[in-house]
């Protein structure tokens, strides 16, 4: 689920931070830049793991900033293909089920990646799974197991302004920079309660 | 920014968890140390000590850290168990225990993160388990190694926690909806 990524970057320390230990100032700086951000084709950055090297600090002309070249490793959320993870159902549409974790919300299980017998229940807006004798519900907020199948990357580099009134529409159609397509068709996948608790099948209406 | 190595290593949830917990402690310690130093310096001068931005970690880091720790501690994650079923030697012990079988690195990581203790759970993690490890004997032996290293989950407590979490989230959602209704009503009053 997590990997380490090695990065080289230029860190600029503002005079307000001179009071801090140098290593601490660099760490804060890196975290402020990367934590909770997505790097294309790398993943969602969590935080600094360790600092590998740092150059002497150099003060540039005209500013009081101290420039330091650093090499460091970041903890990055990037589940590998076919990895099994835990998450919660956030909503369902006829197209499929949306799953989130506390820190990552762009996981989608398309309808064709649900087990055979799964269908969308229009009245309750949830998916159900009909087996031989029971109907099981993919209720919202249920903890589920899913398998990572594909990744979707959307580079959000600024594009040329279209100008005029359409600007706002463009803004609203933003897609998430990093999304995961998952499946729940194998046995053992889907709500954990179905598999971990034997009695639960009888409790479910 | 220059990416030197896109993936230099893989980490287990436990390693990320310890890193975050230690980071939290470090920031906390730094804050108290600084406040104490300031208190000493300003003794007798009667000035109030303000918290400054230097005390705090970057906001995006705080969000990330809190959300991720919540996720890692939530049932049925083994990291939510007390006492913690992992220590520094856990990974080594598990690798030694599972040496007779041929697991991929990804499978080992998933075993560490998810702690499968039933054949059905192991089946989701291990690809083509029936071909690679045929027979109940092998599978039960694998599960007993996992259980010996990582312990046995408290199934009842976990299902209870999962149900409670789901119910809580549902209640919160309903609460939100009610709030929205109230505000629209209020708006209508203002208009009228």
UniProtKB/TrEMBL annotation, chain A:
Entry-linked Pfam families: RNA_pol_Rbc25 (PF08292), SHS2_Rpb7-N (PF03876)
Domain RNA polymerase III subunit Rpc25 per the UniProt entry, residue ranges: 83-195
A cellular-component GO term for this protein: RNA polymerase III complex
GO annotation, biological process: transcription initiation at RNA polymerase III promoter
Source species, domain of life: Eukaryota
Alphabetized SUPFAM superfamilies for the sequence: N-terminal, heterodimerisation domain of RBP7 (RpoE) (SSF88798), Nucleic acid-binding proteins (SSF50249)
Main location: nucleus
Protein localization: Nucleus
CDD domains: RNAP_III_Rpc25_N (cd04330)
Region (Disordered): 153-172
Keywords: DNA-directed RNA polymerase, Nucleus, Transcription
Keyword Nucleus: yes
RNA polymerase Rpb7-like N-terminal domain residues: 9-64
InterPro entries, per database record: NA-bd_OB-fold (IPR012340), RNA_pol_III_Rbc25 (IPR013238), RNA_pol_Rpb7-like_N_sf (IPR036898), Rpb7-like (IPR045113), Rpb7-like_N (IPR005576)
Cited function: DNA-dependent RNA polymerase which catalyzes the transcription of DNA into RNA using the four ribonucleoside triphosphates as substrates.
Similarity comment: Belongs to the eukaryotic RPB7/RPC8 RNA polymerase subunit family.
Family matches, as PANTHER family: DNA-DIRECTED RNA POLYMERASE II, III, DNA-DIRECTED RNA POLYMERASE III SUBUNIT RPC8
Protein name, entry field: DNA-directed RNA polymerase subunit
Species per Swiss-Prot/TrEMBL record: Amylocarpus encephaloides
TrEMBL record, chain B:
Entry GO CC: RNA polymerase III complex
GO molecular function, one term: nucleotide binding
Transcription is among the record's keywords: yes
Top-rank lineage group of the source organism: Eukaryota
One GO process term, biological-process aspect: transcription initiation at RNA polymerase III promoter
Compartmental location: Nucleus
Major subcellular site: nucleus
Region annotation (Disordered) ranges: 154-192
Key words, A-Z: DNA-directed RNA polymerase, Nucleus, Transcription
InterPro entries tied to this protein: HRDC-like_sf, Rpb4/RPC9, Rpb4/RPC9_sf, RPC9
Presence of the UniProt keyword Glycosyltransferase in the record: no
PANTHER family: CALCITONIN GENE-RELATED PEPTIDE-RECEPTOR COMPONENT PROTEIN, DNA-DIRECTED RNA POLYMERASE III SUBUNIT RPC9
Family the UniProt entry places it in: Belongs to the eukaryotic RPC9 RNA polymerase subunit family.
Protein name as annotated: DNA-directed RNA polymerase III subunit RPC9
């Amino acid at each position: 689920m997590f990997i380490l990524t090695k990065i080289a970057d230029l860190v600029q320390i503002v005079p307000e931070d001179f009071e801090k230990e140098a290593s601490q100032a660099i760490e804060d700086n890196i975290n402020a830049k990367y934590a909770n951000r997505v790097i294309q084709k790398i993943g969602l950055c969590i935080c600094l793991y360790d600092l590998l090297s740092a150059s002497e600090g150099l003060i540039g002309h005209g500013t009081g900033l101290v420039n330091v070249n650093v090499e460091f490793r970041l903890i990055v959320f990037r589940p590998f293909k076919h990895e099994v993870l835990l998450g919660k159902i956030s909503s369902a549409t006829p197209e499929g089920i949306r799953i989130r974790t506390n820190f990552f919300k762009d996981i989608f299980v398309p309808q064709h990646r649900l087990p055979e017998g799964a269908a969308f229940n229009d009245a309750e807006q949830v998916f159900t799974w009909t087996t031989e004798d029971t109907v099981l519900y993919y209720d919202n907020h249920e903890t589920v197991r899913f398998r990572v199948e594909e990744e979707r990357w959307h580079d959000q580099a600024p594009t040329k302004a279209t100008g005029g009134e359409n600007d706002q529409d463009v803004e609203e159609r933003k897609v998430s920079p990093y999304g995961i397509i998952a499946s729940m068709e194998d046995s053992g996948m889907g709500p954990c309660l179905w598999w971990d608790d034997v009695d639960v099948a009888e409790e479910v209406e | 920014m220059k990416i030197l190595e896109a993936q230099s290593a893989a980490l287990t949830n436990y390693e990320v968890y310890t890193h975050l917990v230690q980071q939290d402690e470090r920031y906390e310690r730094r804050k108290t140390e600084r406040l104490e130093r300031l208190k000493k310096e300003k003794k007798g001068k009667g000035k109030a000590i303000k918290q400054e931005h230097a005390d705090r970690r970057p906001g995006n880091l705080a969000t990330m850290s809190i959300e991720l720790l919540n996720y890692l501690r939530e049932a049925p994650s083994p990291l939510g168990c007390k006492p913690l079923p992992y220590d520094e030697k856990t990974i080594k012990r598990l690798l030694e225990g599972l040496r007779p079988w041929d697991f991929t690195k990804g499978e080992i990581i998933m075993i560490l993160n998810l702690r499968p203790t039933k054949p059905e759970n192991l089946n989701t993690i291990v690809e083509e388990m029936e071909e690679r490890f045929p027979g109940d004997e092998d599978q039960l032996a694998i599960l007993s190694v996992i259980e010996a290293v990582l312990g046995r989950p408290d199934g009842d407590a976990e299902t209870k926690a999962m149900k409670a979490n789901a119910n809580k989230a549902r209640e919160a959602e309903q609460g939100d909806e009610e709030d929205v209704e109230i505000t629209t009503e209020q708006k209508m009053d203002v208009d009228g």
